[in-house]
C-alpha cells in the first residue's frame, strides 16, 4: 500500500460542513513504476531547484539557489527520522531562526522527487493572499505551509536530502532565510497565479 504523509501534523478537529479536499496519489508515482524511482543527489538538486524556481516564478518572486550546507543539514535530519521512524519537524532549539523546513514522508522508492515536491506545490489550491498565517482559504495555515515556504519572498537558498529506512523515504528541504513568519504579507506579484477563493 502506498502511503503518503505530508509534514504537517494536524490536530484532530471536529467535522464541519466544509468540503475537505483529500489529495489522491497518482496512478504512477514515478516513471519506472512499479520499479523504484530514480535516486541521486544530482537528480534531487536539479528537480528541487527546477520545481522551486518554477513555482516562485509563477508566484512572482525571485529564484532560489542551492546551498550545500542546507542540504547537509537536511540530510542529517532526514537520516535521524529514518533511523528513529519519528516523522516531525526538527525540534532542535534555534533551528527555526536559522532555517525553514519542509518535510515529506512516503513508501520507500515509490515516489519520484517530482511527486514528493509537487505535493507541496499542490497546496496552492488552498492559498489566498494575506498576512501570514492568515493565508489559507480553509482557515488552516498548515494546509498551505509547504507552499508558502517554497514561495516565501525573502528566501534565497534551499538544500534538500532524502534518507530511507527499510520501508520509508524521508525528504527534508531546508530554507534560508526562514519563511512562514507571522505578520508578513504574502501577496503574489503575478496576476496569473490561480488562487483559492478567500474565506471571510
TrEMBL record:
Which SMART domains is this protein grouped with?
SCP
The residues forming the signal peptide are: 1-17
Q: Does the keyword Cell cycle apply?
A: no
Pfam families the record matches: CAP
Q: Where is the SCP domain?
A: 43-183
Question: Mind listing the UniProt keywords for this protein, alphabetically?
Answer: Signal
Query: Which protein is depicted?
Result: CAP domain-containing protein
Amino acid at each position: 500500500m502506498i502511503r503518503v504523509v505530508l509534514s504537517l501534523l494536524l490536530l484532530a478537529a471536529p467535522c464541519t460542513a466544509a468540503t475537505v479536499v483529500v489529495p489522491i496519489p497518482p496512478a504512477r508515482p514515478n516513471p519506472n513504476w512499479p520499479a523504484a524511482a530514480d535516486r541521486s543527489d544530482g537528480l534531487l538538486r536539479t528537480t528541487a531547484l527546477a520545481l522551486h524556481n518554477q513555482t516562485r516564478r509563477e508566484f512572482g518572486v525571485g529564484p532560489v539557489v542551492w546551498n550545500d550546507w542546507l542540504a547537509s543539514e537536511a540530510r542529517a535530519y532526514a537520516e535521524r527520522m529514518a533511523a528513529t521512524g519519528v516523522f516531525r519537524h526538527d525540534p532542535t532549539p534555534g533551528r527555526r531562526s536559522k532555517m525553514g523546513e519542509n518535510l515529506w514522508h512516503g513508501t520507500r522508492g515509490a515516489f519520484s522527487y517530482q511527486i514528493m515536491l509537487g505535493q507541496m506545490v499542490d497546496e496552492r489550491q488552498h492559498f489566498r493572499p494575506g498576512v501570514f498565517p492568515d493565508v489559507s482559504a480553509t482557515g488552516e495555515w498548515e494546509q498551505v505551509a509547504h507552499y508558502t515556504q517554497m514561495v516565501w519572498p525573502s528566501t534565497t537558498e534551499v538544500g534538500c536530502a532524502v534518507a530511507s529506512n527499510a520501508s520509508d523515504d524521508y525528504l527534508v528541504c531546508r530554507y534560508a532565510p526562514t519563511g512562514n513568519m507571522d505578520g508578513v504579507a504574502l501577496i503574489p506579484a503575478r496576476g496569473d497565479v490561480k488562487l483559492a477563493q478567500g474565506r471571510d
